[in-house]
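Sanity check

After download, print the first record. It should look like this:
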Amino acid sequence: MLGGLLALLAALTFAINNAAFRRGALTGTVAQGMAISLAIGVVLFVVVASLTGAWSAAAAFPANSFLMLCAAGVLHFAWGRYCNFRATKAMGANLVGPPQQMSIVVTLVLAIVLLGEALTPLRLLGILLVIFGPAVSLRARKATLGPDATASTFKPNYAEGYTFALLSATGYGTSPILVRTALQDGGLVASIAGGLIAYVAAAGVMAFALLSPALRGGIFSVDRVSRKWFSISGALVAISQMTGYMALAVAPVSVVTPIQRLSLVFRVFANSLLNREHEVIGGRIWAATIIGLIGAIALSLSTDYVLEVLPLPEWLETIARWQWPAA
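Expected structure tokens:
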């Protein structure tokens, strides 16, 4: 119960974070959003780590686990988030969602290669759906942007948006493998310590980038409105990451991951409320979102779990239990 509620909170806050960043990006830059969100994330994780005693857990990580968490932070919070922000600014958060689900395909491929997991018919179906979803949304070029759309309404840049959405999937898809290997089911406090290490590593990369006077000047020139929305986005995404780690500490992955994928649906709702004139909204977007959600859930669930919930005829169960590489 607690794990499911935490996963739902993670999905909801991640979705609203995307909508808040989208609002801030109307007048702000990707670099400004990155700097503010990472700074706020580090502060929140430091506070929670201090309250939970996670500092000692962070110091107790072996060197290889520490390095994996640093790499996960750079890939997820620096590379993945930068590409996500670029994609969102280019074509809106609603259109970014479906192609970004390729991240779970990246995770699956790495899990098969590095962790010895298997490819099953259920996962093949999930891959097909995750690939098909973006194809549906791509045809939404002429979808209505809102009832009050005008000639000056936002026009998506599909080439840049899809490129960076797929690039963000490489970071978001790789980091879970590193985190899973580093934490080794270490528990709630260890997961917070791991998140802190990952955030600090990403912030270090951002701090290095700030050595550029031009970039530093651009970040510090952020206007009041963008600063407000980027700050909200930074706080929400940090809460999302924290509650997601906590959910995995108290509930199975097969329960947590499908619930977290509901952020796809919450994202469309949030942008419909906050950014209606700056997002593509229509039937094809909803179709792509639902198809991607079903595909992501199919990739997240184990065959054994599905067969327990949904008994099948013997011949169909035999097909469902096929796997590659063979056990």
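If your output differs, re-run the checksum step. Summary of this record's structure: The chain has one domain: 2-320.
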